[in-house]
Amino acid sequence: MKIRRLLAVAAATTAAALGVPAAHAAATGAITGIGGKCLDVTGGASANGTRVQLWSCNAGAAQQWTVGDGSIRALGKCLDVAGASVQNGAKAQIYDCNGTAAQQWTASAGRLVNTGSGKCLDATGVSSADGTPMQIWSCGTGANQQWTLPTGGTTPPPGSPCPAGPFGNPLPAQNLTATKIKDGYNFLEGPVWDAGSQTLLLTDMHDGSGPQNVQASDILRFTPSTNTFATFVTDSGSNGLALSRDGKSIIAATHDQRSVSAYDLATKQRNTLAANYQGRLFNSPNDVTVGADGTVYFTDPDFQRADRPDQMSGHTDVFRVKDGVVSLIDDSIREPNGIELSPDGRTLYVGGNATGKVYKYPVNADGSTGPRSDFVSLGGTDGGTVDCAGNVYQVTFGDGKVHVFSPSGQALGTISAGQNMTNAAFGGPDGRTLYLTSGSPSSGGDTGNYGLYGIRLNVPGWPY
């Protein structure tokens, strides 16, 4: 979490492969193989465990496959290896989508490689007869392992930082430990990657001061190519940071003025995006994310409100601001914290720091949100991020870990970086370095010792 004052006083290689689109650019159509036959769900049945076969192409629903986010789907189910087997001859079937490696596929040299087994989708017996069952088998060069995929939508939207998919498991191992880059800072927060300068921007927060005990902060700039840090904006008043969609500004949750601000990257000029809600001052805006249309979503717990009066009647809230108009999303989450958008912009994730849950909201075309639902149960949530496959990286403060979940909520593993982790962001030239902020909070007089950590992952990340 972005700590309260009392805590301050007292944490598979990306495959831009052959014609398979990313999560935000899915394509639907027939998948053709040996003999020009189509990949088909036997009998058009949607029951779990229904075998996948070859059949003469007929444009039926059982032959309409959607490829993207690493999965291959038909009839509302995912192409799956039965029992998550890694053995030659294991059955290929459809099953409820669950985000596991048994349902993740990478296109490579015309083949479809299952992430969990490393084996290829294979037409049994090198046959092209109708009804030939599908299996997995050690990858070779035979025609029975060659597949032509739907071609529509294979190019990500203009300006997207994500390559085409599909994507495999994002983690090289289930439990990872990040490497420290540099420490010695009081309390680091809000990292965000600036692709234009190939640098990471992050907040360093100081201990509270003045009559209301408000925490000052600066924006730092880390340059990986020279491994150097410098102060970018002094007295920024910031906490969480995000990048504007045009790449020209940093959007900052600025608790110093209880507002949301934009800092021009060229001039460092500060402009206010959201000053209040219906005339009432926010508590202390904390984390931000930005939609493709420029809508800014932010959380407003009370961690940095300090000794300033409450104008939100005890509520801690989630807001959005579009075209200068602030709208309430939710006022029923106690201490909402990290906030992230899925790569396709259709799902908003919010960590409930004091509720033990991470929530999700559907996002409508106009940037408004639908009803909230539970995503996963997780206590002590802080900041977070997502990758280009839509996997969610949720930081928990107390144990100093990032908990990684598939878009369906399946736990994929963890990444550690000491104690008291606050936030995470993807960056680097290929977007595959995950940066983490973690350390020891101050016991007074700016005696904190926070550091920046980094780790290389298999899937590039989403900077918004």
TrEMBL record:
Q: Does the keyword Acetylation apply?
A: no
User: Which SMART domains does the protein's record reference?
Assistant: RICIN
Q: Which residues bind a divalent metal cation?
A: 189, 337, 382
Which Gene3D superfamilies does the entry mention?
2.80.10.50, TolB, C-terminal domain (2.120.10.30)
- Comment on bound cofactor: Binds 1 divalent metal cation per subunit.
Report the SUPFAM superfamilies cross-referenced here: Calcium-dependent phosphotriesterase (SSF63829), Ricin B-like lectins (SSF50370)
Name the coenzymes or cofactors required: Zn(2+)
From the UniProt record, which GO molecular function terms apply? hydrolase activity; metal ion binding
Catalytic residues in the record: 382 (proton donor/acceptor)
In this chain the Ricin B lectin domain maps to 28-150
Signal peptide feature range: 1-25
Could you say which residues bind substrate here?
286
Q: Which UniProt keywords apply?
A: Hydrolase, Metal-binding, Signal, Zinc
Q: Which CDD domains match?
A: beta-trefoil_Ricin_laminarinase
Alphabetical list of InterPro entries matching this protein: 6-blade_b-propeller_TolB-like (IPR011042), Ricin_B-like_lectins (IPR035992), Ricin_B_lectin (IPR000772), SGL (IPR013658), SMP-30 (IPR005511), SMP-30/CGR1_Lactonase (IPR051262)
| Nucleus found in the keyword field | no
Alphabetized PANTHER family for the sequence: LACTONASE DRP35, LIPOPROTEIN-RELATED
Family per record: Belongs to the SMP-30/CGR1 family.
Protein name per UniProt: Sugar lactone lactonase YvrE
Organism equals Kutzneria buriramensis
Q: What is the lineage of its organism?
A: Bacteria, Bacillati, Actinomycetota, Actinomycetes, Pseudonocardiales
